[in-house]
Design goal:
- The complex is a heterotrimer of chains A (320), B (319) and C (503).
- By secondary structure, chain A is mainly α.
- Chain A has a single domain, classed as ABC transporter involved in vitamin B12 uptake, BtuC, CATH 1.10.3470.
- Helix content of chain A is 76%, strand content 2%.
- In chain A, a hairpin with a 3-residue loop joins strand 2 (160-161) and strand 3.
- In chain A, helix 5 (93-117) packs antiparallel against helix 11.
- Chain B has 319 residues and is of the alpha/beta class.
- Chain B folds into two domains: 28-132 and 270-288, 3-Layer(aba) Sandwich (Rossmann fold), CATH 3.40.50; 134-268 and 300-313, Rossmann fold (3-Layer(aba) Sandwich), CATH 3.40.50.
- In chain B, strand 6 (155-160), helix 6 and strand 7 form a beta-alpha-beta unit.
- The longest helix of chain B has 24 residues, at 2-25.
- Chain B starts with a helix and ends in a 6-residue tail after the last helix.
- Chain C is α/β, with parallel strands linked by helices and 503 residues long.
- Chain C folds into three domains: 1-82 and 162-168 and 194-238, Rossmann fold, CATH 3.40.50.300; 88-160, no CATH class; 257-500, 3-Layer(aba) Sandwich (Rossmann fold).
- Chain C has 17 helices and 20 strands.
- The longest helix of chain C has 16 residues, at 175-190.
- The chains are: A mainly alpha (320), B alpha/beta (319), C alpha/beta (503).
- Chain A binds chain B through residues 33, 35-36, 38, 40-41, 44, 48, 51, 131, 138, 141-145, 147-151, 158, 231, 234-237, 239-242, 244-245, 279, 282-284, 286-289, 291-293, and chain B through 39-43, 45-46, 69, 163, 190-193, 195-200, 202-204, 206-208, 210-213, 224, 227-228, 231, 234-235, 250-252, 255, 316-319.
């Protein structure tokens, strides 16, 4: 009886969709090439996942609240570029970062207004914003990477605690814990889940639906810009295309982590696992010496397997 | 509200029509030259554009620089070439990334009497082409690698934008062939792709190194690939043990060479390519003598050359 | 005389409900038979049986056409027999032309090509015949709902039916359009078409119908020649539902006025220039249950929605809450003023289905909880558990997801959500819709307890016994206007029904 309850609890966990394929992957890669488990490699994977996860935290709120945002990749690039311009203009590091986040916030305000206030479909609206931002970046940078930063800035992305744990992993940890507490323990988080589950009910229950939705769009773009700043610091150059193409993989990580595409459910822990899973797949395939020609195919198969397991789990736990 | 939207929509479409017809009615004596490029701006193509504009200015030509929104999309390039024909171009400078896809539009351009000078890639429909010959470039990279590694064993990975980028495939094949000729004992471990993203490049080379600890070099056919690999070398402290051969001469790449995280870079002469292509087209148009194939060449930049190169090409290096 | 259409002993059951109970009725060629009855009498189920929406194996009984047994296995079969339906909700292709909408599925032409000149000519002919001032090429999107309704009637006519069934066709029409329709129906009848006309407007019955049947609780109660029956008798037959003993009504302690609504007008959601609530004024007193009766679409839910700030655009009127004028721009304002709202559609606007009982029940009172930003989990559990116990919600635990509950328990959770918020005025739209009898009685008990505790309730109900038994005072709306106010002994089913169908 006890074990049965335990099994059911395990099945009911939202994060299971990522844990099972991950376990499978780890077993396989462990057999093929045990050096995968070298501490350095694990830390590398975590660092890769961190850049995505920093954006995945607000995206978890966004999607649990029933929204979506295709402009995060562009906002990432924008954050790096603004920060780089400010640094090149001789501003102090803190001011430059603040300006980058402010730029992100402006994107978020714009997204929030057109989607929430003017009720444009988020998919197209944020796709348009994505193009517009990429255009602005192309105009201002002529698609040239901006480099030549002080080491005080570079250390933000390149530095390591105890010479092992990259700073971005620490930032991601802090942001993740804060996000987890916000989503599970605060009135704000509860309201977001209610809005995603049924916006009409939430509105009639006295929740400020629009205000909350706009605030999430702002947070999403701000954190995307932050991720862009950190990537610029890591490579000592702000690349105009730093974030392009990341929007879908980040949303995929969040969905694999158990957040519903239609809103109402989601956990930050699940999103963390989703980001780690995607980073692990890419790394593990190379570590196993899988040819690049095969990698995309296998990547796709693992993604589908992950959501399959998730679907099965929901049915097993009597969800839908 | 509805009316306002309607009026706005009307005004927008009016604006589009007016601007389009403005372009269409701009008739005049100067020759119209269309560069159909794969991207606008960027370390490489940005210089190409500058060279192109400079030559047009000198010759008094009307130069148009067209580029698609998504990098390297053959379909969009064909459409842009189509646009150039519709706008009664006298000269078109296409980048034939895919011979099949371009065949039809180039045939029609030729029938319309348009001078066609290809950039970076040869094609049967072209009057002539200019560019870094992909084979020569691959050869140059192989030579740079052998010179950098010295007498030790060579276990090398290659990294390009994507495995579907045709010209890069030719470059890569040439590199592999030349390397086999120079150093029969060298091993090419894998061909990687990075989508022009340094973070992906760094992650992939790091994982590859883990799987193949004896891998000691990477050559780049994408400029961000080299950047990512250099960052990998810096983080792992592998300066002098892991050799990175970069491509192009963007400031951040030259910085990597100065910092010893990259051994050298193979610079293509992008400015020259843009500049000379227009003069080549002029020669064809005016019925003067010309060569079909024109290699704009490449040069290998080592740490000792960086400062001189930067000064000569007007590149500002950072800290 | 022979029947062109006959239903014999038709019984249609839903889980727990008999929607049609042994209904037999016949329709003659060239007559208009009206069917009337209150909300939920079984009229729309009857429509669905006739249209073939319910296949013949889904109900008991038989349908006979021209004296022969017919097997209505699908909508197509019914159409094949010459039956055309005109529904209340119109399903039009909004971006197609008037002509295309009328002839959809029967476009003139050959080999997949449409003969447009003929299409437009035919349409023009029909439009002229009926006297509707619109053009065949016009896009349907620009038409008003009266014109749309006329269009769907024309669509039915264009198929040259032998039998037409119309479901309250005049509810969206102006008087002028109604006149047009009536005269056309008479013309159709005279040309031999048999018409089944579902309506609750007695005036229309007396104007054009030949016979009238009354339905109640899924049964055919009576059948009269229109000339031989008085209005009063029809009303009495429509009501008279049995009142079961499940209303624990005690003597109310009614106090001072807590809410006053003056000259409330709410624009119609789809018909431009028309109000769905028109100049309605009333007041609510402490500890009182104020019932609002009327037919579906009379503007009852919209009245509640406007008070609560759910509907705001174009709403006019003055609201006084606890002696102070209130400006309610959104539900939050209403909640701050001490008002709660249990909506009609639980699933759509009452609860969040992915959340647990606990999370749903505390949703409206999050701001009352201790601590400003963080949810005090212990306090939340205690409150949710206490409310769940008080309302006797039957569930394994308060962590159970609300989707796994029965309708009655879901409704209790929604009620509990508002009670935790401690409102002084509670608006309840259809308190027992889709709930079994046992849970109904419990809901009534809770409502009585609330009024004893000094809470005032406005209850909209289509359930006549519930309305009559639970209301201390009862308002009746008809076409958006207040057509009756009853108190005490005056609250009877007949009085309410008379006011509900008053023009």
């Amino acid at each position: 009886m006890k074990t049965r309850d335990f099994a059911r609890n395990l099945l009911a966990r939202n994060e299971l969709g990522t844990i099972m394929p991950m376990a499978l992957l780890l077993i396989v890669v462990g057999f093929v090439n045990p050096s995968f488990f070298a501490a350095n490699n694990i830390l590398d994977i975590l660092r890769t996942a961190s850049f995505a996860f920093i954006i995945a935290v607000p995206i978890t709120f966004l999607m649990a609240g029933g929204g979506m945002d295709l402009s995060i990749g562009a906002a990432t690039s924008l954050g790096g570029v603004i920060c780089a311009f400010a640094l090149k203009a001789g501003m102090p590091v803190a001011v430059a970062i603040l300006l980058a986040l402010l730029g992100g916030a402006m994107v978020g305000v714009f997204n929030g207004l057109i989607i929430v206030k003017f009720a444009l479909p988020a998919f197209i609206a944020t796709l348009g914003v994505q193009y517009a931002i990429n255009g602005i970046i192309a105009i201002t940078t002529k698609n040239l990477a901006i480099s030549g930063f002080s080491s005080a800035f570079k250390v933000l992305g390149q530095g390591k605690l105890f010479g092992a744990v990259a700073y971005p992993v620490l930032y991601a940890l802090v942001i993740g814990i804060a996000g987890h507490i916000m989503l599970t323990r605060t009135k704000y988080g509860r309201s977001v889940l209610a809005i995603g589950g049924n916006a009409e009910t939430a509105y009639l229950s006295g929740i400020n639906v629009r205000g909350k939705q706009i605030s999430i769009y702002i947070a999403t773009s701000v954190f995307a810009a932050l991720s862009g700043v950190l990537q610029a610091a890591r490579f000592a150059s702000a690349q105009p295309a730093a974030g392009s193409g990341t929007e879908l993989t980040i949303m995929a990580s969040v969905i694999i982590g158990g957040t519903s595409m239609f809103g109402g459910t989601g956990t930050v822990l699940g999103s963390a696992l989703g980001c780690v899973l995607l980073a692990t797949i890419t790394n593990a395939l190379i570590v196993m010496n899988v040819s690049t020609f095969w990698q995309n195919l296998i990547f796709g198969v693992i993604l589908i397997a992950a959501i399959f397991i998730d679907k099965y789990r929901r049915r097993a736990s009597g969800g839908e | 509200m509805k009316n306002v939207r309607r009026i706005l929509g009307f005004l927008l479409s009016l604006l589009m029509v007016v601007s389009l017809s403005a372009v269409a009615t701009a008739e005049g004596a100067p020759l119209k030259v269309y560069a159909v490029s794969v991207m606008s701006g960027g370390a490489a193509w940005g210089q190409y554009e500058v060279g192109f504009n400079k030559a047009c200015e000198e010759l008094g030509y009307e130069g148009h620089y067209l580029a698609p929104q998504s990098f390297n999309s053959a379909a969009e390039l064909v459409n842009l070439t189509e646009t150039a024909i519709t706008n009664e171009a006298d000269i078109i400078l296409p980048v034939v990334v895919d011979a099949e896809a371009f065949a039809d539009v180039l045939t029609r351009a030729k029938e319309a009497g348009i001078v066609l000078v290809g950039i970076q890639a040869p094609d049967d429909h072209l009057d002539a082409y200019i560019g870094t010959d992909p084979t020569n470039l691959g050869n140059a990279i192989a030579e740079a690698l052998v010179a950098s590694v010295g007498d030790g064993p060579i276990k090398v990975a290659t990294m390009q934008t994507s495995l579907t980028a045709g010209i890069q495939q030719v470059q890569c094949d040439a590199f592999v062939a030349k390397l086999a000729q120079l150093r029969p004992d060298a091993v090419v471990i894998d061909r990687l792709e990075c989508n022009s993203n340094a973070a992906i490049a760094a992650d992939k080379i790091s994982a590859l190194y883990l799987a193949n600890p004896d891998c000691n070099a990477m050559i780049s056919l994408d400029s961000y690939a080299g950047l990512g690999a250099a960052s990998f070398v810096e983080e792992k402290g592998l300066q002098g043990q892991f050799h990175v051969i970069g491509i192009d001469d963007a400031a951040e790449i030259l910085m990597c060479i100065k910092n010893k995280t990259m051994d050298c870079t193979v610079a293509q002469m992008w400015y020259d390519m843009g500049y000379k292509s227009v003069y080549l087209a002029k020669a064809i148009h005016d019925g003067e003598a010309f060569e079909y194939a024109n290699d704009s060449g490449s040069s290998i930049i080592y740490a000792a050359d960086v400062d001189a190169w930067a000064a000569q090409n007007g590149i500002t290096l950072g800290e | 005389m022979d029947y062109i259409l006959e239903m014999r002993h038709v019984t249609k059951r839903f889980p727990g409900v008999v929607a049609l109970n042994d209904v037999s009725i016949g329709l003659h060629k060239g007559e208009i038979l009206a069917i009337c009855g209150e909300n939920g009498a079984g009229k729309s189920t009857l429509m669905k049986v006739l249209s073939g929406s319910y296949a013949s194996h889904e109900y008991e009984g038989e349908i006979w056409i021209d004296g022969q047994k017919a097997d209505f296995t699908s909508v197509a079969v019914a159409e094949h027999h010459g039956i055309e339906m005109v529904y209340q909700e119109m399903n039009m292709m909004l971006d197609a032309s008037v002509a295309e909408n009328i002839f959809v599925g029967h476009l003139p032409g050959k080999l997949g090509w449409v003969d447009y000149p003929r299409l437009y000519a035919d349409t023009q002919q029909i439009l002229d015949e009926i006297g509707l001032p619109i053009k065949p090429r016009e896009k349907v999107r620009g038409l008003n709902s009266g014109q749309l309704q006329m269009l769907s009637i024309m669509r039915a006519i264009s198929r040259k039916p032998r039998i037409m069934v119309l479901d309250e066709p005049t509810s969206a029409l102006t008087d002028q359009e109604t006149d047009l329709l009536m005269s056309h129906m008479v013309r159709l009848r005279d040309s031999g078409v048999a018409i089944l006309f579902i309506t609750h407007k007695l005036e229309e019955i007396y104007r054009i119908a030949d016979r009238v049947a009354v339905m109640r609780d899924g049964q055919m109660v009576s059948l009269h020649q229109v000339k031989e029956v008085e209005k009063r008798q029809l009303v009495e037959e429509m009501v008279g539902r049995k009142i079961e003993n499940l209303y624990p009504k005690n003597q109310p302690q009614i106090g001072e006025e807590v809410l006053k609504v003056e000259h409330l007008s709410v624009p119609h959601p789809t018909v431009k220039g028309r109000n769905i609530v028109e100049d309605v004024s009333f007041s609510l007193r402490k500890g009182e249950i104020l019932g609002i009766g009327g037919l579906v679409g009379a503007g009852r839910s919209e009245t509640l929605g406007a008070i609560f700030g759910q509907i705001t655009g174009g709403v006019k009127g003055k609201l006084t809450v606890f002696g102070r004028e209130a400006h309610i721009g959104c539900p939050r304002d209403a909640i701050r003023a001490g008002i709660g709202f249990v909506t009609e559609e639980r699933k759509k606007s009452g609860f969040v289905w992915v959340l647990s009982i606990r999370e749903n029940i505390t949703l409206a009172s999050l701001s009352h909880m201790p601590k400003r930003y963080i949810i005090d989990r212990k306090a939340e559990r205690v409150r949710a558990q206490a409310m769940s116990d008080r309302l006797r919600i039957k569930a394994p635990s308060i962590e159970t997801r609300i989707v796994n509950l029965s309708g009655g328990n879901q409704q209790k959770v929604v009620l509990g959500k508002w009670l935790l918020e401690e409102p002084r005025i509670l608006l309840i739209d259809e308190p027992t819709k889709g709930i079994d009898v046992g849970a109904k009685a419990e809901i009534y008990t809770i409502m009585s307890e609330l009024t004893r505790a000094g809470i005032s309730i406005i209850m909209v109900s289509s359930d006549m016994p519930e309305l009559v038994s639970m209301s201390d005072r009862c308002l009746v709306l008809s076409n958006g206007r207040l057509t009756g106010t009853f108190e005490g002994e005056q609250i009877t089913q007949a009085n309410v029904m008379r006011a509900a169908i008053a023009q």
